[in-house]
Amino acid sequence: MKRRHKQAIFWSVAAACLLLDQVSKVAAGRYFASQGSGAIAPWPGILKLTYVHNAGGPFSLLSGHNSLLVIFSLVATTAVVAWFLSLKDNSGLQVSALAFIAGGAFGNLWDRIFLQQVRDFIDLELIHTLTRYHWPVFNLADVFICVGVGLMVLALLKPTQAGASEAPAQTD
Fold first, then answer.
1. Is 172 among the residues known to form the active site?
2. Where residue 163 falls among pLDDT bands split at 50, 70, 90?
3. I need a surface site. Which of 33, 60, 92, 148 has the fewest CB within 10 A?
4. What residues pair up with 21 in beta bridges, in sequence order?
5. Is 43 helix (H, G, I), strand (E, B) or coil?
């Protein structure tokens, strides 16, 4: 994959993730503002939409320490972009993985910088139904980060071209 093509893919996917995340958060916020409050359950027992503000990190950790979370998010997103820029191989899967992670990280970073909190609205009731544990409400940025991590795991587990062609020698 040529460098320009790799960069076009990375920045396009990251921008699309950021845009989808922000549009979904605005739409959820407007919907719930017009309804007063509450939640809707498009798939009862599986998925509920509940609009909440999270002033902390994942699982509401470090709640109230927005400046620290902004610094951490800036360092993490910078590290992801640096990793992308340092890629020597032509793995489209790694490029896509890092783009999803960056796009999701940019989405939550945007909220932290401009709103001092993250807007969440996806509530998986299925986890509570199966385990009696209520999983925290999350957003599309979180989904994109998880998709990116999953793609990266696949990319790192995938045999390299050189390794795939080097079959072990047969001994009789």
1. no
2. very low
3. 33
4. none
5. strand
